[in-house]
Amino acid sequence: xxxxxxxxxxxxxxxxxxxxxxxxxxxxxxxxxxxxxxxxxxxxxxxxxxxxxxxxxxxxxxxxxxxxxxxxxxxxxxxxxxxxxxxxxxxxxxxxxxxxxxxxxxxxxxxxxxxxxxxxxxxxxxxxxxxxxxxxxxxxxxxxxxxxxxxxxxxxxxxxxxxxxxxxxxxxxxxxxxxxxxxxxxxxxxxxxxxxxxxxxxxxxxxxxxxxxxxxxxxxxxxxxxxxxxxxxxxxxxxxxxxxxxxxxxxxxxxxxxxxxxxxxxxxxxxxxxxxxxxxxxxxxxxxxxxxxxxxxxxxxxxxxxxxxxxxxxxxxxxxxxxxxxxxxxxxxxxxxxxxxxxxxxxxxxxxxxxxxxxxxxxxxxxxxxxxxxxxxxxxxxxxxxx
Length: 387
Ligand SMILES: *Cc1c(COP(=O)(O)O)cnc(C)c1O
Hints:
Low-confidence stretches: 1-13
Bound molecules: pyridoxal-5'-phosphate
Distance between the termini: 66 Å
Structural class: alpha/beta
Mean pLDDT: 95
């Protein structure tokens, strides 16, 4: 027993199955009369007489609610890797920028995916403004291999958003390390239950917790899990100087959500596969992608490195008008961006202008509804959207 949240790790959380680990992840040892998950610590500063030593002195640097959440995420991203460290951030972009801007210097070269998250081109422009050379190549076919020479950092996004392409992480990480480059992987779509990047060779697993990790579409969050203490110290320093920190309430809600991560992921991912299979039979659907479909171009590589294939399905309808009518006709699927939440959402991705996708391209995020209800709604909306 221990009376402080930074006390001993809950022993039941280690050496067990993933669902068991998820429900107990990051919990402190039980303390009589205390809740299982201590509530959010709202504190801008902490009592601090004398010399300012850790762990808690100022709210931009640390917070006990973050500590527990960081421990929880670390137990899922890097089980058994005691040296790995996790830091939480205000959003996925805060986490991504903290890795990129803390690890590279003017004159360095970074390799980004050309088909990654739509804000990466803005990050690229900022890196270039600071004198960093940025090269891009597509995720599919491990094309980033061809532009690795002389790079200091390789950024991988697999499966990619929104195209759902997959690259061979072990192969890319080996090639990058052989050239002395660090490897960061955006694990947003897979979640740590879908794929564990550090075990596949990445130095950093970075993600938006806004999506399936927290899964309710009501908070923004990001995190970085890294294996190198030195590299993570620089990431922590970046968080401190930029102040890109999550609020204690968001951190606590995120931790609460992780207890149901396996339930949500298993349900949503199984339904995503069922929806993808139903869409496969439709003549108006082209470019259907879901890494779990046995005949998807990414399936073979995905099966080597992923344990679950995600809750997102992407496909194209013949025209922008058809896609808009389809989205309008859906009753159980909200027309909204983001993905991974318990309520299904879909959008015509081309409306943002940042992705190289056809006008009729739809990104569909499958929620926790009954699978047969959702499949029926999608097929009915397809019928209703025909001219
Ligand atoms: C949403 C997303 C991000 C950005 O996360 P925010 O929490 O919105 O800042 C980064 N990468 C991927 C793959 C995403 O889907």
